[in-house]
Structure formats: structure tokens, C-alpha cells
Design a protein that fits this description.
It comes from Georgenia satyanarayanai. With 420 residues, this protein is an alpha/beta fold. The chain is 41% helix and 11% strand. The chain folds into 2 domains: 249 residues, Rossmann fold (3-Layer(aba) Sandwich), CATH 3.40.50; 158 residues, Rossmann fold.
Amino acid sequence: MLTAMPFAGHARPVRAVAGELVRRGHDVRVYTGRSYTALFEEVGARTVPWDAAPDVDERDLAATFPRMRGRKGFRQVLVNLEDLFLGTAPAQARDLERAHAAEPWDLLAGDPMALGTRLAAERLGSRWATVSPIAVWLPGPGIPPTGLGLTPADGPLGRARDRVLGAAAGAGTRVLARRYQATRRRVGLPADAETFATMWYSPQLVVAAGSPGLDYPRSDLPGHIRFVGDLTDDGAAPSPGPLPDWWDDVQRATVPVVHVTQGTASVDPRDLVLPAVEALAGREVFVVVGLGHRTPPLPGPLPANVRVAPMVPYPHLLPRTDVVVTNGGYGGVLQALRHDVPLVVAGGDLDKPEIAARIGWHGAGVNLRTGRPRPAAIAAAYDAVSTDPRYRATAARLGAELRALGGTRAAADLLEAHLR
């Protein structure tokens, strides 16, 4: 049994793992929201839709969780954690326990943000693993406080900065950790010793998207955390989908191709898409904008060098792309790097400031340090990334590491070994 939060950035990587397990002959069920059941059934998995858990629509989370309305930045993170992830966990656990009673499984492997996975596994005494489409970057020595988009700092001043900001961030996470313990009590589980950073993950096995080289340097990573690269790799993924009717323009392009994406969660085009279009209009580039499946149409007319589609299949687009301008969604960043493409990253909320900070720190792109950059900042970042070969060289180094880790095949290998 796999679990996946009903969001594109979570469901699609888990679907790739499910598809690989099905191809190996396993009987795979997936517990997810009804809006994503068809996606998993396409690869041969059976689905168990959310029932006791509220069947959320990622296009309008505020309809189910009114406190999310109008929230951005850190306030959005807190409400997401409290209402969506922690708040739905007991109901998720009830759904999973009913599914297990009807048809027991041999292994439960869950999306870390589907926290009901942990609760059900503990209540049932089930062997379980985490399959994480999100970045697994734990606190540790020399690692700056998470959530602030900071990079490592050396010397007494740097250590003092981390102590002060770490204490401030810890105050917020302690509130959520107490909420987690209260959630455990609600489902009849005793208190445990997990912290806010670790409560999402299985202590037995974590199959993590990404690579060690994408994190800051560290030597304290627990042995049960295993990075496997990109969990949407082309070889194990289903058909990439239809191409836009203007695709011939991409194939005929004689200038650099720039892909602009704002992901599938925060989709107000005024944040990044429109400033990027303005920044690149009239330049000797060909701009391909992926709007996601719920962004309103862009106000026209568009510049002559811009093409727009709701979704653009990455297996076709990224091999032709020179630079990606992105809001820092983890899956899209991994796919760009796997194709050796450097990035301009505007990470505004959730985990995206951390992703942007690491991309900038490693030198695989430019961190714009905001989710709503000005056109001039995007233009300057594009000029830097497109003219300095060090960015592409670093992206290629990280891409080689991601490819070497094995992707969905390695994920399936680890889950099979955990079964035994």
C-alpha cells in the first residue's frame, strides 16, 4: 500500500514508483484523493480513495480549510501543517486501517506529508517505509535553521546567527510538535520522542528523492535515509502526454530555449510568470511557459517569443532547454538538474526558499531570494546563468549524481528489500 497526498508534486513521483512496482509483478494499492485515482490506475495500481479524510481539491484548498484563504509565506506554512497535514492525519489513519482490515498488505510505504501513514503503521504494527517526493533535509551540525532559506555561515558570528534564529524557529516548531503529540493521543498512541523534523519519516526506511550533493555538506545522515535521485525519471514514468500545437516552434528554435514555471501550488501569475515574460520579451530567446493546470489565462497579447501551455511534457522539453526559471518546486528542480539545466529560482514559501538557497549556494543557478521578483532581477539572473559556464557545469555535476542514484528503479529495489 502506497500513500500520496492529492497534490501533483506528490502524486506524480509516487505514481512513478507505483508503476515500477506494478511492472515487477507486485499488487500495488494507493491511498490518495479522488482527483488522483485515475492517475494511479493508468499505471496498473488499484486505488483506495480518501473517505473519512476530507477529499481536498488542490485547486481550492481554502474551500476545505478556510484559514488558508489569503495566506502566504510563513503563515501559509503554519496553516498547511496544522489544518491539512496534522488535521487530516487521524482520518487518514482510519481509512488505512479499514483498508488493511479488508485486505492486509505486506508493506505500507507512504508520502511523509500523509501523516496518517505513520499513525496507521504504528497502530497496526505494520512494516513501513517513507517514499518522499519532498526534500529530506534534516537539522544537524553546521546546518542553518530550516525554513528561512539560509546558507551555512562560518565563524563565531555565523554560529551566533544560527543559535538565535534556531531558537526563534524552534519556538514555532515546538507548537507543531505538541500538536503532533496531541494527534497521537487522539488515535490512542503513546507519546514518542520524534521531533518536528523527524515525525514525518519512517525510522525503518526513507526512500528520498534527490541526492546528498544537493544538501549542504554533512556527515551525520542516518543510514536508513537513502537518496534515489529523481522519482519521475523518464525510463520508469508513463507516457509523457500530448505536445502543444506550437511544438514545432520549439523544434525549429535557433536561439536559447528558456522554460518558465510557477509549479502547481501557488499559481498567481503575477508572482513569477508575468515578471519573467516581461524580463525575457524581445530578447534573443524562445520562452516556453508552463502554467500548471489551474492558472488563469495570461492577459494578452503575449510577446512574439513566448509560447504558453497548461502543462509541457518535460521528457520532450528539458533536453531542448537552456535555462529554467522556476518557483523552486522540488520535482521540477530535480528534473531540470537531471537534464543538466541551470536554474533561476524564485522560492517564496513552503519548502521553496530552502531549495532556492541550496541551488544558489552550490552554484547550479541564481537564488532570487523572493517569490515575487522584479523583471529586472530575473533578467540579470538569466544573463548570469546563461553566460557563465560554471552554472551549467555545476548543474551537470548534480545531474550526473541524480542519474547515478537510479531513480524509480532504485526506489523499487529498496522497497523490495524492505519487504524481505
